[in-house]
Response regulator (Actinomadura rugatobispora), 216 residues
Amino acid sequence: MRIVIAEDDLLLREGLALLLRAESLDVVAATDGPDAFLKAVDEHGPDVAIVDVRMPPTHTDEGIVAAVEARRRRPGLAVLVLSAYVEQAFATELLSGGADGLGYLLKERVGRVEQFIDALHRVAAGGTAVDPDVVAQLLTRTRPDTALERLSPREREVLAVMAEGLGNSAIAERLFITDGAVHKHIRNIFAKLDLAPADRTDRRVAAVLRYLENTR
């Protein structure tokens, strides 16, 4: 796995590089701004990019903009975005174009090495990794009187964990229920959100995005 890092904080940038190399991962470039990041993407053709949301010169959304541009230049590039705190608009913007190969984690999650590496591998494999705290805050901001209100408390729990990018077995383990129960809850979620089997979109991704769409 070839990785490019874009992080303007020197200590975190070097710490990430050391951590990933200790896991036998190939960090081909560690950059401190969006321009250098995009140049590294063009030069090295990485499999995954780890990008800070806020970078120079304005420290607003440069990371998100650069991540979108990097995926335009290199279709299929997996991107794991790091943020110091939950930024609802950026999470929604990042995932609204499709969630395959995308992740959004809080920086504090890096210190939980096993979880961080698992999220990185999941994103690299084309999956999704959304920080549980991001999911929780998005859920609490959901407007009333939407289709999401049809979900039972357990179905909402299942969808919240599914939004982190976990598969059925991992959801069952997290919630201490059987795989069969997870399958049943997910089937109910699809039905209550009017996501038909014939839909061309990935119903799991569509269900997660419904959370994000209702926080705008």
User: Anything to note?
Assistant: The CA atoms of residues 148 and 210 lie 8 Å apart. Strands lie at 2-6, 26-31, 48-52, 78-83, 102-106, 128-130. The chain has a mean pLDDT of 83. The chain has two domains: 2-131, 142-213.
